[in-house]
Amino acid sequence: MAWAGTSPSNTPIWVADQKGFFKKNGLSAEVIAISASTIAIQALLTGEVEFIIAPSATLVTSRLAGADAIMVSTNLPWFIDHIVSVADVSTVEQLKGKIGGVNRLGTTSDMTLRLALRRFGIDPEKDTKIIATGENPQRLAALSRNVTQFTLLSEPLVREAEKMGFRDLADIGPLKIPYHVNAVVTREKTVKERRALVVKVVRAFAEALHFIKTNKEATKALIGKNLKVDDPEGLERAYRAFSAAFPEVPYPSTEGVKTLLDDMAPRTPKAAAADPRSFVDMSIVQELEASGFFKQLYKK
After folding, report:
1. pTM as predicted
2. 171 and 93 inside one domain
3. Total tally of structural domains belonging to the chain
4. Cα-Cα-Cα-Cα dihedral of 104, 109, 110, 113, to 10°?
C-alpha cells in the first residue's frame, strides 16, 4: 500500500499502520511512502502495490486514460488547504502575474491550487505561472528564495510558514469544494477477485478514522512524529482542521469526482463526456453500513 504527500491528510494511513488497525483486521500490510501520487498510481497499475491513497485528480486522469483504477472509500472529501504567499502579497487578487509552487504538475497540490484560484476568479493558466518545486519543505524554500511567490499548504505547515514570515493568504476550506483529497484507490480487478481483502482494508481505515476522532492527543503525537513537527499550536491547529473534515462513514461519493471532471471539461473532451459514477465503487462501504459496523463503531 502506497501513500504520497507529507500532510496530515495521510493521518488515517499512519494510524491504520502504526496503531495496528491493519493487523487487527488480519492484514499484513507493507506501507510505502512515495514522493507523488502520479508515481503511486503507476505502481498500482503495474501491480507493485495493491492499494494507494490518492486524490480525485490521480484517479480521474488515470481512468480517463483507460486504467481500471477505482475509489472504494474516502478519508478526506474536502479541500482544507491554505494559499500561503510571500509577505508583500496581501490579497488573492495580487497573485496575478506571480509564480506559484506545487509538488509536481498533475499532483494534488497542482490540481487543488488551480481549482482554488479559479474559484477566486483567477485564471491559473493566463494570470499566473505554476511550477513544480517539490514537497512542502522545498516549496517553503522556493518561497524563501522568491523563486515562487505563493504555494498551497495545510496545517501544521501553515503555522510553520507564518513563523518564517509568510502570509496565510486564503483558507480555501470555506469554499466547500468537494474533491476527495485523500481516498483509498485500488483496481476493479482487485475488487472483483479479492473482495474480502478490500473490505478488510476499508474497515481498517474506518477504524483509523474513528481513532482520530476519539483520541486527540495520541493523534496529534502521531502527526508530529510523521511530519517531524513539534510546535504545539501547529499540531493543535492541524488536529482541529483535519479531525473535523475526516468522515465517520467514508462513502466515495461522486461529488468530488464531478468537481474535477467539471473543471477539466472545457479543456478535456473525455472529461466532459465521463460519468462520475463510473469512478467510484460504493458497494464496500454500503456493505459495512448495512452490517451495522459504523453504528457499532460510533455506538449510535
Report:
1. 0.88
2. yes
3. 2
4. -150
